[in-house]
Each structure stands twice: as structure tokens, then as C-alpha cells.
Amino acid sequence: MLPVIPELLATLLEEQYGAETAQRIQAGYAIRRPVTLRVNPLRTTRPEVEAQLTQAGLTWENVPWYEDAMIIRSVREDALQALPVYEQGGIYLQNLSAMIPPLVLQPQPDETILDMAAAPGGKTTQLAALSGNQALITACEKNKIRAERMQYNLEKQGASRVGVMMEDARRLDDLFSFHKILLDAPCSGSGTIALMEGEPQRRMTRDWLNKTAATQTAMLQKALRLLKPGHEMVYSTCSILRMENEDVVRKCCAKANAEVLPIEHALMQHVPQLPVTIPGTLCVCPDEMHEGFFVAKIRKMK
């Protein structure tokens, strides 16, 4: 018998989405997703990855909205971690939903980019790869052990223009300014529950959720102070609760003279979506391929 989700989460999902959609979400929690990976063009090529997969007897599926992403249904992570291309940093194992925020941010060469909550570095290395290692990226992580792990991943992935700052991003001096910012904020993880993986019951109380939302608000307010006027950032969470997503974005944009821009990317035609209260934002529904995720693109007005 599968473990059940926290009672409070079940209540919140039904209150926010209604009984039918809440059941759809919980069905997504109960599916074991296939392994997905991202080819790292800083270390290898897609044909080389395909050659190693073929040699190992593995097959793959393409992802229509991201040419560097691959779906591997036949094995679990350990089989891919045994490949030379993994050890050499040529592939990065990552859920498809987690690949979305860097794609929406669209890092460009010579831009200064801040990744505010960067460890373990999956999205940071993706930003580096998308910019051809030409963007200048600052990656913040306040925990020493997590920062060291991120530094290892950055070096393995060949992300050579990333500087790790062991600091709480909320404490950065307001004299800093960046062309683009990625804030993949700490959250409840309400989109990433994987019952088939035997996850333990999560601690989830209203007080904890309120504190989490307060942290997210403080971080987004800081991000909007550090963002150059007229420039764009991405706010994302692996939560599907409005109090961590639209409510935070709406509050911070109103105070910072910022606006939400519609996400315009081919992925919008392919990923399963939940209803949102801010047009143009994206809330991915957990299903057989995707974790639950929220993404908003924000521009600071001049």
C-alpha cells in the first residue's frame, strides 16, 4: 500500500484546485517517472551521448521542446551513472520540469546572472551551457557542504565562468546589479512528492508553510532590488501551492514596480498544466513525466 500525502496538503490541493484536479495531482504523485537527462554541450555532443547509450544497450526518447533532453525508460539512475559520459560530466540527470526555468530565462553571452539558491548546481550548469559558457554567473549557497558539492558539480560540468558565493542571497549588498536573475526558491516541495519512491511523510503545517512563503517573499523582494531596471528574472518553485507561487509574485511585483511577462516557449504546448491566477505563468502538473513546478518570468520596470 502506498504512503499517503500529508493531510494538510490534500486539503489545500482540494481547496485550491477542486476535487477532480486534486485527484489528478495525487495520481501524478503515485507514478514512478522514467529517468531523464540533459546533454551537457560544454563536455560532449548529442551524437556521442547517443553512441554510448547504444553501446550500453539503452534506448531513449526525445523531448520535443528541448533538444538536449532525453528520456530513458528502461533503467534507473545507477545504469547511467556507470557510463563514461556521466563520469566526464557529459550528461546531467535532471527531471524535465527542473530544466524549464533556465530555458525561460534564456541566458546570453556576456550577461551577468545571479543564481540565488543554486545548490546542487543543476540549473546553474544549465545556464552556463545555454550561454555557451559565455555568461558571467554568480551562484549563491549559504551552506558550506552544499556549496562545496556545487563547486564539484560546476567543475565536473565545465561551467568555468561561475563564481560560487557562500552567502545567503538575501544578505547581498544592494550595490550589486545583474542583467538576469534566477530565483529557484526554497519551498514545500509539494510538486515533487514521489510516493513510488517510498518517501517518508513530510512535515507540513500551516505555520511552516507561512514561514516558507515569507522566506520566498523576502528572496524575491531582494532579487527585484538586485535586478537591473528594464531587465528580466525568473521566479520558480517545485511547489504547486498558490501561497508559494502567484501570491508571492503578485505581492512582490506590486511593491517593486515589476510586471509578469508571458512565458513564450515551445514547452508551453507540451507540458501538463494546472490553472494559474496570473496569466502567463506556468504551473506544471505532476504526471508520469513531470514533477510539479511553478515558473514566472518577471521584468523590472525602468
Fill in the keyword field for this structure:
12 strands, 10 helices, alpha/beta, 20% strand, globular, four-stranded antiparallel sheet, 302 residues
Describe this structure in words.
The chain is an alpha/beta fold and 302 residues long. 34% of the residues lie in helices and 20% in strands. It has ten helices and twelve strands. The protein has helices spanning 7-17, 19-29, 46-55, 77-81, 84-87, 100-105, 122-130, 144-157, 206-226, 246-256; strands at residues 35-39, 61-62, 69-72, 91-93, 112-115, 136-140, 162-165, 178-184, 227-237, 258-261, 282-284, 293-300. The strands form two sheets. Strands 5, 6, 7, 8, 9, 10, 11 and 12 form an eight-stranded mixed sheet that branches. A four-stranded antiparallel sheet has the order 2-3-1-4. Strand 11 (282-284) and strand 12 (293-300) form a beta hairpin. It is globular. The mean pLDDT is 95.
Structural class: alpha/beta
From the alpha carbons, calculate the radius of gyration and give it in angstroms. 19 Å
- Oligomeric status: single chain
Number of helices: 10
